[in-house]
Amino acid sequence: MTWLIGTILATALVQQVQCGIDPWVSPEYKYIHQFPLPIPPIAVPLTSYTDANKTIDFYQINIEKFDAQTYPDLNKTSYVGYNGTAPGPTFHMTKGREAVVRFVNNYDRPSSIHLHGSYSRTPFDGWAEDVTKAGQYKDYYYPNAQPQRTLWYHDHAIGITAVNAYFGQAGFYILNDPNTDVGLPSGEFDIPLMIAAKQFLSDGKLLSPELERVSLYGDVITVNAQPWPYLSVKPRKYKFRILDASISRTYKLYLAADSDPTTRIPFTVVGADAGFLDHAVASTSLVIAMAERYEIVIDFAKYGGQNLTLMNERNWQTNPDYPATDRVLRFVVGAGPALPTTDPGNGALVDGAHLANLNVPNSAAHPVIDHSFTFERTNGQWLINGVGFENVPNRVLAFPKRGRVERWELINTSGGWSHPIHIHLIDFQVVKRSGGRGAVEPYEAAAFKDVVYLGMNEVVANYAPWDGIYMFHCHNLVHEDHDMMAAFNVTDIDLSSYGYSDKVSFVDPMIQQFQAKPYSGTTDLAVVKNVTLRDFANLNAYPNGLAVESALEDYWSKQPTATTLVTSVKTSGGASPATTTTKVSTTKTSTSKASTST
Predict the structure, then answer these.
(1) Can you tell me the mean pLDDT for 71-96?
(2) Which of the 8 DSSP states describes residue 303?
(3) Phi (first) and psi of residue 264, to 5 degrees
């Protein structure tokens, strides 16, 4: 009997290799869809400050090591995460209430926190060299002023982002707008799903990506840190906020009933990186790359008493296939009749239904490519236009004018590798894709994005509302760390005549005033409320973004049709002094973030 079982396993292994399915690299996980989906805890403010103009809520997150049981039959897995959980606590924020989040580093590796999807000022954006070392804390000041969206916070420390994020430093940050209700599922029917592929050692510990220089795809698919979980759902509509938090793996997701696995069940895409789509888009598949977020609505009404599984396409681009990487999450639909469509968030959702006014930049009015960036591999290094982030004198590659629309072309020449490109500060629209898939997906075309999955792309964006030095990079975190990251400098415009002038210059992300400080071991909430939050409020760092962009639009409308500007910028953040001469067009700005084309 033992010999027979061994023969069967060996035969199956040969068949997997012949079909392009690699054998397990991690220990085989034998409990697929047997454990429930964990839901991350909710972050709770510890104190708040209110004056005549604003309210700021204060939170504290501790970066710390902890152990959790990932494989039931192996040792516990060591993680390093936020408040002892992976994913970290979920922030549910209300538009119009600002926040200060204090991150305390109780571990031995440096950290830098990026709130991905926020137009934070540069000292609070997670500049890679602006690290918080062991025994220090840093206060990050967030505006919470953009349209509702699914953001996430994660590590961004130079050279070790992949390691830190992979071991657990990532969490959801959901910005809600009580004035925007389009009748979608909410509350218990609005569920965040952080998908991340991992690789484990024989003792149940994580394989570290520290020595990896190409990619770590992983053969164990986790959702909210649980390998292949299940979720019990009612026969009604749910909204899922899907984030690819893998460090190297991309997905092409689809939904099928276990009873009929060859028939793909449609769902509706309603949101992307920067919030609601212009209109709902029905689809039977979803391409999602590292750091991208999509919000989808699945209607389980017709599937009472059945199991549905969120699947992953095999043979998808450069991602290796393993025995179970074609599965992600099982939905166990409760028996009984469909719940009434009169229930909140369970009404009709029609393909093409209008969701939001995006005020997209007029890409046709700006046909000229302002910058072309080539993402390439040269002599074992991952570079942008031949430059890596370690090349300090040359790493600022663009100087867009504050409040101007630019079109960027992003080109992938690195052979068989794909690159999800993230541009900080802005939202953009994908307007063109050539090579690879050869087309912009319908749900991409209806969205604002901050990550684009790169074959060859163009990006149209309004570089506003703030000035300063921001990063852009590949979000395959192995590539980012080695060394596919650069910077752009949004050059300042004097808006004092419009009533907007910074009390502190936020151009330099490494401004000493806001860098990490030693942590005493306790947080005095009275001092936080009466001093720290008051001082942040008095900075007036986040005036009304739409009003600032309106002022910028008026400013540029009064400029000559072509002006030569020379800008000299110096930053202690590592960007060398640089001078650029640029022709300025009369293109109008958008009142949203930006637009991109792939």
Answers:
(1) 97
(2) G
(3) -90, 130
